[in-house]
Amino acid sequence: MSDLQIGLLVIGVAIVAVVLLFNWIQERRFRKQADAAFQTPAGDALMQPGTVPHETPSRPERLEPALREPVFDANDDVRDVAGINEPHLQIDADLPQAETSLEDSMPTRVAPAPPPSAQAPYVPATAPEAPYDELIEYRIRVGGDGVLANVFADAFNHARTLGKAVRWAGLPAGAAEWEEIQPWRDVHYQQVAVTMQLADRNGAAQEEQLSALCALLQNVGQAHGLRVACDDVAAAMERAQAIDRFCVDVDVLIGLNVVARGEGAVNLARIVREAEACGMALGMDGVFQLLDSRGEPLYALCNHDAEPFNAAVVEGQTSQGVTLQFDVPRVPDGIRVFDGMVAFGRKLASEVGGILVDDNLRPLTDSGIEKIRTQLTQIYERMEARGVPSGSRRALRLFS
After folding, report:
1. What integer is the mean pLDDT of 168-172?
2. Average pLDDT, the chain
3. Among 71-85, 301-315, 316-330, where is mean pLDDT lowest?
4. How far apart are CA 198 and CA 207, in angstroms?
5. CATH number of residue 338's parent domain
6. Is residue 44 one of the residues assigned to a domain?
7. Which residues of 269-298 are buried (b: 16+ CB within 10 A; e: fewer)?
8. Which of 239, 296, 304, 321 could serve as a FRET partner for 123 with CA atoms 20 to 30 Å apart?
9. What are phi and psi of 299, to 5 degrees?
10. Number of C-alpha atoms within 13 angstroms, CB side, residue 187?
11. In total, how many domains does the chain have?
12. Is 344 helix (H, G, I), strand (E, B) or coil?
């Protein structure tokens, strides 16, 4: 073997060794980055005591809204849980108490007070409170020295895929009021609060959703040197389950139907004229709605037939009937609105020669209407007692 061949062989071996060494160094560096990105940092001075994963209690199957008797259990008792930083809703002893209250569902243990370093020291004593509904939200707090809004862009977009409503609020540097964060704006924030809604009509939030949101913010904090404090996931899960049980029990949709007598049909043209005269507006979905001053529906009118209402109803066009729908927890002053819907339904029935019936096609008598009003009164009293008045902003969020 010549000297040239030996030299080339030595050079080739050296190049292979350099490549292997470089790949080993790169793989080790990437592994460290991946571990840092997907593991919770230990010893964060702002973090609360660690959360122990637990199995989420299975939630009862959600019932479709229907006109029914609410379940009342006179044996439910209310426990006063001291020392837990959760909302305490006063319940009038004279009101019916059907479901387990949010307070009843809270643990009877006293939560240990966090050490001073875990109480978000980056919050100045004079700073205004962050937007946060402690009854229905899970919270994550972020602090930094003038963090730019766009550092949250990726987390902001990812949070939309978690399945629950997420709110982003920030306190601009030097400002006295919080505002909604828009990641594309050139704004620096001294504090940020991110909250996830704990329940809606799709059910209670899951532990994985809360943990994923916390992990998103922790990754941002690690990348940009921010201080992140996530509320306790286990406590939030207990609240989520309690709120969901309460919502399922009061989530009622009342339907009143106007149908023809015998084997006939109702005149749609006349019904449309009456709906428009009543001030109802036809939506893009072909459903008439009576709206309040906020633009929220009070009650709706839809066609029994597969074809929805349209703006050009032909004179003489008929249908098997129409339905008036009343979404109980979303309507303020519900008793008055229900009475108005009943009066409108009776007027429609008179106009088309039909009859007003319930969902089981039984004629609605005065006694039947009064029974429904009694049920509504009980539901609304319970909603008030739980701090979720019907038609309130909190009710609209929970029953969405």
Report:
1. 95
2. 79
3. 71-85
4. 10
5. 3.30.1400.10
6. no
7. ebbbebbeeeebebeeeebbbbeeeeeebb
8. 239
9. -155, 165
10. 22
11. 2
12. helix
Residues 236 and 285 in one domain: no
Assign residue 187 the CATH number of its domain.
Answer: 3.30.70.600
Structure confidence by residue, pLDDT tens digits, 203-250: 999 999 999 999 999 999 999 999 999 999 999 999 999 999 999 999
Whether residue 260 has pLDDT greater than 60: yes
Tell me whether residue 179 is in a domain. yes
> What region does 262 belong to: left with phi over 0, alpha with psi -120 to 50, or beta?
left
Residue matched to tokens 């839809």: 302
Based on the fold, state whether residues 256 and 211 are members of the same structural domain: no
What span, in angstroms and rounded, lies between the C-alpha atoms of 268 and 258? 11
Place of tokens 């030299």: 7
330 lies in some domain: yes
Residue 396: burial class (beta carbons within 10 Å; 0-12, 13-18, 19+): middle
For residues 257 and 393, state if they share a domain: yes
Record the pTM: 0.66
For residue 111, what are its two tokens?
């939560």
Which residue range(s) make up the domain with 135?
Answer: 117-248
Which domain-ending residue is among 196, 221, 248?
248
Taking the chain, what is the end-to-end CA distance rounded to the nearest angstrom?
A: 82
Same domain for 123 and 241: yes
Is the Cβ–Cβ distance between 382 and 250 less than 8 Å? Answer: yes
Using alpha carbons only, give the angle 63, 66, 71 rounded to the nearest 5 degrees: 70
224 with 263, same domain: the answer is no
Complete edge-to-edge strand list for the sheet that includes strand 188-197: 179-180, 166-172, 188-197, 137-148, 227-230
Q: Determine the Cα–Cα distance for residues 214 and 205; give it in Å rounded to an integer.
A: 14
CA gap 374, 335 in Å, rounded? 9
For 69-112, write each residue's pLDDT tens digit.
333 343 333 333 333 333 333 333 333 333 333 333 333 333 34
pLDDT at 83: 34
Query: CA 52, CA 289: separation in Å to the nearest integer?
Result: 48
pLDDT at 20: 75
Residue closest to 257 by CA, chosen among 354, 334, 340: 354
Evaluate if residue 197 carries a pLDDT over 70. yes
Of 248, 266, 295, the position where a domain reaches its end is 248
- Share in percent of the chain as helix, strand, coil (round to 5): 35, 20, 45
Please check whether residues 241 and 282 belong to one and the same domain.
no
Two structure tokens written together for 220: 């941002």
Per-residue pLDDT at 29 = 63
